[in-house]
Amino acid sequence: MIQRDLTHGSERQHLLAMSIPTIWGILAIMAMHLADTWYVGQLGTDALAAMGFTFPVVMIIGSLAFGVGTGTSAVIAQAIGSERTDWVRSYSTQSLIIALAIALVFAVVGLLTLEPVFRLLGAPERLLPLIRDYMGVWYLGGFLVVVPMVGNAGIRAAGNTRLPSYVMMGVALTNLVLDPVFIFGLFGFPRMELQGAALATLCAYVVACTIMLYVLGVKLKFLSLQALRQGVVQSWRDILRIAVPSAGTNLIAPVATAITTWLIAQYGADAIAGYSIAARIESLGLIAFGALATSLAPFAGQNWGARKLDRLNRALDLSFRFAWLWGLLFAVLLWVAAEPLIGLFTRDPEAIAAAKHYLYIVPVTFGLLGTIMMTSSVSNGTGNPHPALLMTLLRLLLVYLPLAWLLSQWLGLEGIFLANAVANVLVGVGAFLWIKRKCRRGTNARQAEQRRKAMWEERYATDEYLFGTEPNDFLREHAAELPVGDTLSIGEGEGRNAVFLAGLGHRVTALDASAAALEKARKLAREKQVDIETVHNNLDNYRFEARRWDTVVSIFCHMPVQMRRRLHQQVVKALRPGGIFILEAYTPAQLKYGTGGPPVEALMMNLASLREELKGLEFIHALETTREIHEGKWHHGMSAVVQVIARRVG
């Protein structure tokens, strides 16, 4: 099922093998846009201007699709890394439905508001018929562009960047062939001009859509009819949780570019021309960063899902070193060859001067811009898109644009370019410090988790039942209040509570991170002649299906605060309406008794925090108390506990 398992093997080889095809894919798309521009330019200035007015709208749709693709890639890669095959299919299937929904909404709204929107963008009346010709076709077939963008993100999540790149190269080649045929009416086809340009693009994307669906559905088996019905709400929530901030991140850049263009326009048309040339030259150097960042996201997702943070940390270090080295080399190249490169585009001395100023100032900070891109990619890939959004907001809206206006008052055009460099430095350094701190904390937490797991494996690796074979007293006392049905016992350990509930008719699934404990649970079940299902999984990796359980049991299941909060939030969603969550745990006051439980206050629970974590449940029983506990040799004596019984109402 997995095209490339990114959780094993050389980090360098994985990133290199994924990045090189991505570079070709990016170049293919750039070539396609250049071909469109050249062919449409043969129709005259008005046609070219009309197509120019469509760019902001097409860019918005592309940003939304890219955002959904980012969310899709992140959740699929994490599901692959944690070996949750059912959720891979659910995410893949539902992501295409989300993409289709976005395209259809845009088509309806776009067609109904076509002329008012483009008038608002400043299009003169004489261009509106030409814009209508292009966008009328594009809106109707926009789903052919959006759906492959999202589907290809799912393929990349599986570690295969080669196929999406080949598909994009095929799209570019098909578009290159069809453009003159449809635009100018060759080989018996009618002359369609701008309508033909849009139609050629959409026909090219039919190829992409067909290949993408075949690969996802047949080769990877990422699509299924069952996924149309199961896990729908949870899949949409997980994808959009990343997609919405990611789309916002992508929408900020064109806004900042528009404002930058307005600022530079104050210095004349030559300044705009020089800036445009410099930006195009700059984009060639940034292709490598974009390709590596695109490859880093699925790598981060798979290894985050597999909890292999050491691999993620090493890959990030490799990416940073490449960004700094390539940024320095490209800056030196531009210092040496700026004038001849600019001369390929213009002979105007004022435009050349403006472009030279940009290429002498900004590229020296490309390494730190690459740092921002890599950090954002890892953030999105690990399912945390908000830092990427914050970095973009800081760099473009809070640092660059205000500083560009301020410095332009003192230094003129060069002040705008200097502001760009300063923003790259400030946010790049901040991004580096933040992500390294996060990696250190994650590695430390992972190591602590591994030590805890090893400790419990060692403790459970005896014939003795550490906590006895009888159920917890609190659970026994309230067992009659629990719905008899599908029951999940988290942190079950050696099976005493699961076996007890199975004896009452519950269909019990016992979840624990210790294989040794679950083996003893199965042994106890055989002795008591009951059936239980056991699941060996870390609690932070386990995927709770929405509305799956009638009862969820948590008896002395202590874990780090952040993990516990996430788990309890999932428990709320996992309960069916009327379902019950029952919990008993130690409070911080237990430390003075020393009769059981973890020796760290941070792992304890209290009623106030549980009420916050279990929002959405109606508390039936909620109590902090002290009581005698006699459960094997590890829980024995007077103890301070918190007890909760809570019901999901709707």
Short description:
InterPro entries: MATE_fam, Membrane_Transporter-Flippase, Methyltransf_25, SAM-dependent_MTases_sf. This protein is α/β, with parallel strands linked by helices and 650 residues long. It is 67% helix and 10% strand.
Explain what this protein looks like in three dimensions.
By secondary structure, this protein is an alpha/beta fold. It folds into three domains: about 1-250, no CATH class; about 265-455, no CATH class; about 475-650, Rossmann fold, CATH 3.40.50. The chain has helices at about 10-40, 45-80, 85-110, 115-120, 130-140, 145-155, 160-185, 195-220, 230-265, 270-305, 310-345, 350-360, 365-380, 385-410, 415-460, 475, 495-505, 515-530, 560-575, 605-615, and strands at about 485-490, 505-510, 535, 550-555, 575-585, 615-630, 635-650. α19 (about 560-575) links the parallel β4 and β5 (about 575-585). α13 (about 365-380) runs antiparallel to α14 (about 385-410). The model has no long low-confidence stretch (mean pLDDT about 85).
| Domain module count | 3
How many beta-strand elements? Answer: 7
What is the typical, i.e. mean, pLDDT? 87
Strand order of the largest sheet: 3-2-1-4-5-7-6
N- to C-terminal distance: 37 Å
Strand portion: 5-15%
Walk me through the topology.
Elements: H1 11-41, H2 45-81, H3 85-112, H4 114-120, H5 128-141, H6 143-157, H7 162-184, H8 194-219, H9 232-265, H10 269-305, H11 309-343, H12 349-361, H13 366-381, H14 386-411, H15 413-460, H16 473-477, E1 486-490, H17 496-503, E2 507-512, H18 515-528, E3 533-536, E4 549-555, H19 561-574, E5 575-586, H20 607-613, E6 617-631, E7 635-648
Parallel strand pairs: 1-2, 1-4, 2-3, 4-5
Antiparallel strand pairs: 5-7, 6-7
